[in-house]
Amino acid sequence: MKYDVTVIGSGPGGYVAAIRCAQLGLKTAIIERYSTLGGTCLNVGCIPSKALLDSSEHYHNAKEKFELHGINLKDLAVDMPQMIKRKNQVVEENVNGIDFLMKKNKIDVHHGHGSFVDAHTIKITKDDDTTEQIESDKIIIATGSKPITPEAFNYDKKRVITSTEALDIDKVPKRMVVIGGGVIGLELGSVYARLGTEVEVVEFQDRIIPTMDKDCGKELMRALKKIGVKFHMKHKVNSVEALKTKVKVEVQKRDSDDTFTLDADYCLISIGRRPYTYNLGLENTSVALDDRGRVEVNDHLQTAEPHIYAIGDVVRGAMLAHKAEEEGVLVAEQITGQKPHIDYNLIPNVVYTWPEVAGVGKTEEELKEAGTPIKVGKFPFKALGRARASTDTEGMIKVISHKETDEILGVHMVGARVADIIAEAVALMEFRASAEDAARMSHAHPTYTEALKEAALAATDNRPIHM
């Protein structure tokens, strides 16, 4: 079989690339090594984790807030098997949706492990060890990433787990240790903390979500402490020992020889992900990897073989599903002669805890380090009428603009629904709006988005109305 384009990997980057290629008239195939489409995101990442986050937040609100709203319950309990069942149903619906889109766009789906025989030929090894080969004029590598699991942590998928296994625990643990204070660890840690688990986070840095604005990390840590999460900052994990019914985690203070042991039911490893670029037969091509195992690409996402492209987690940049999607569209359109563009500075970053965290553009620390003259406006959710009405008063929105031109350079927020609100900031910054522009826009009252307007007013010339 011969195709115009073949995509290896069916995650958000891969399936979006395939759909856009098909829309543009290219005969397209997609190769997926697992039995279901959607990659990590739909099967064991973004979608199932959000399902559990929502379920755990409903329980937490019923337990902590319903009485305040005049709703009295008795015999409130967590039905973990039902929670997992609903999560699985959500996954199944989304995966079926991708199947439908492949058929709708007449994309050929090949299940099996794809590897290069040469620069234009791909071998597909199926579960029963049978193989087939296809040829393709253009090829897009979109194989995603896997969790990093150091040997010293003794990852066994039973007591020492990653995000994949954390999505299927069918009984609420008494205690859980989370290694890493980044997005994945905090999201899943917060799921179990809301359900009653004693969660302790061990983080080597001096702050959580270290790639995001410092004020966001402070706000989120304050909120997570309120639901019982404990933090060991500036600490590292030396070893993890898995026993039959529990784990022992040896922790050491970063600048000291002092160690102590944490006992828990589970240890969740969440210290980052590594690109899935092994066993792809890349040695049969001229495609090169960098020192972190990522595929080396130019600004057009082309490899050393100009007809082979790579997108998403296997190339430089943030490992975000929506970044991969944008790159998939970019490659498809480039193949057909268009000249698309991605502004990586305007790819938003989101943490789906509650309160949520979101940011786009430069952080205050980055701008100060670069010597950029800035103005900073902040507005707290506790001063917002809509937030008071819903009791979601934790968090704030920060708008950073250039001191001389007033152009918005960064927007960072913690609070209710900021994962959605951040899109307004992205739109403003795409059109290089000023803080004054944002401040002059009419925002419906009462809404959470009014906090963005107020923060823009604060950044313009320190004139917020409600603070």
Give the end-to-end Cα distance, rounded to a whole number of Å. Answer: 66 Å
Oligomeric nature of the chains = single chain
Mean of residue pLDDT?
97
CATH architecture of the largest domain: 3-Layer(bba) Sandwich
- Count of domains: 3
At the fold tier of CATH, the topology name of the largest domain is FAD/NAD(P)-binding domain
The CATH homologous superfamily of the largest domain is termed FAD/NAD(P)-binding domain
Q: What's the β-strand tally?
A: 22
Low-confidence stretches: none
Please outline the major beta sheet: 7 strands, mixed
Helical run tally: 13
> What is the 3D form?
globular
Key terms for this structure?
single chain, alpha/beta, FAD/NAD(P)-binding domain, Enolase-like, domain 1, 3 domains, five-stranded parallel beta sheet, 13 helices, 32% helix, 26% strand, globular
Structure description:
The protein folds into 3 domains: 2-146 and 274-344, 3-Layer(bba) Sandwich (FAD/NAD(P)-binding domain), CATH 3.50.50; 151-271, FAD/NAD(P)-binding domain, CATH 3.50.50.60; 355-461, Enolase-like, domain 1, CATH 3.30.390. The chain is 32% helix and 26% strand. It has 13 helices and 22 strands. The strands form 5 sheets. Strands 1, 2, 3, 4, 5, 6 and 17 form a 7-stranded mixed β-sheet that branches. Strands 8-15-9-10-11 form a 5-stranded parallel β-sheet. A hairpin with a 4-residue loop joins strand 12 (235-242) and strand 13 (247-253).
